[in-house]
Amino acid sequence: MDIQAPRGVRDILPDESWKWAYVLNSVAKVMADFGHSEIHLPIFENTELFSRGVGETTDIVEKEMYTFTDRGSRSLTLRPEATAGMVRAALEHGMCSQNAAARLWCWGPMFRYERPQKGRYRQFFQIDAEVLGIAGPAADVDTIALSVEMFRRLALRGLRVALNSVGCPQCRPAYRDALLAYFGANRDALCETCQARLERNPLRVLDCKSASCSAVADAAPAIYDHLCPECAAHFDEVKSGLARLGLPFSLDKRLVRGLDYYTKTAYEIISGDLSQGAQNAVCGGGRYDNLAESIGGPHTPGVGFAAGIDRIVLVMEEQNCSFGKRAQTEVYIVARDDASRPTAQVLAGKLRSAGISAAYDAGDSVKYARSFKAQMKSALSARWQCIIEANGTFTLSGGGSDLTLTEGELVNYIEEHR
Ligand code: ATP
Ligand code: MG
Predict the structure, then answer these.
(1) Residue 120 C-alpha to ligand 1 middle, in angstroms?
(2) Alpha-carbon distance 120 to 102, whole Å?
(3) For a pLDDT cut of 70, what percent of the chain falls above it?
(4) What is the mean pLDDT of residues 215-241?
């Protein structure tokens, strides 16, 4: 076939999709336990939502968005992340008016034009949770606790919470100046990309993965020395809140996140085990008190996180974590001859109505019907194989020795032995 999936996107095949269902089931339960309601958001939004919300000088907006013009000449963008859409929806539907907080979550595909590699795709999936309408640090702690609990229930090991504060519009300009002065003096040691964007966004150099920038950034001024009293107090309370809950974290002064909307708390959850270099972040989040205003809404503080489902499943596979039991068809019905094919169809219907999963070879003419042997081969993946006999009875195998049963006995037997 000459048409294949586009570069960087992949099909999640049945051998993997059942693992996703396990993860999402577990996540849905944690979300409910933390009081978050599920929301389904559009996959595409007006481009402005991201250019204004995520920020013009971010990698995402500068070079990673899938933007297109629709037939009505509107500029639309496949969502590269979920937070901006979540805030847009909450404001549009008045979900956090009158100081009532909105606790929401969603999951689904995100799109970024990135260099595809293991754990990095152009269509990838995120779980996203947000608390909107609360400015205080308790919401940050609750959000971090939620993400940690999510991974605890999935039994992921070796995760590390890296924490930082990125300040606010009051304290960041002075820090930005200090960074500009420092990086400016070391300009020649920076990678080309960072040299080019230094003036526009010196904070970005801090999380540049290139070895040369890393070395320079390690000795860069720390934001802790520049936080305004409010941000410093907020940061202290987040740290003491996490300590109170017994949640370990390490401070990372270079953690700035790739989206401009963050204020105060920024954090990531990193897998120490993952043998995939830069693709080791399974979750990232933080506070974004000015995002709502930047997209034209009223001041609405918020805090949340996004976790990559593709990477979570990857780490769980590497760590041999349990995905529960893969669902298996219970009964596969096999017709010995063409005459019993209609019986297979009717019996499948009866079993399904009784809540028993059933499959059969749906070929219904000589041309499409598969041989007894071919049917038996398919049947072996089911819990039981049920052969229709000429005398109206059924031979059930799969539970030790074969049994000869009538239709009524068959349903009873399966109900008792499943
Ligand atoms: P990275 O540093 O790995 O590029 P990021 O900071 O760009 O991650 P976020 O925007 O914070 O990622 O998204 C949150 C999570 O989504 C990440 O921690 C990761 O698990 C996942 N993620 C981000 N980009 C991709 C991608 N291209 N493919 C697969 N998963 C991704
Ligand atoms: Mg990225």
Answers:
(1) 8
(2) 31
(3) 97
(4) 95
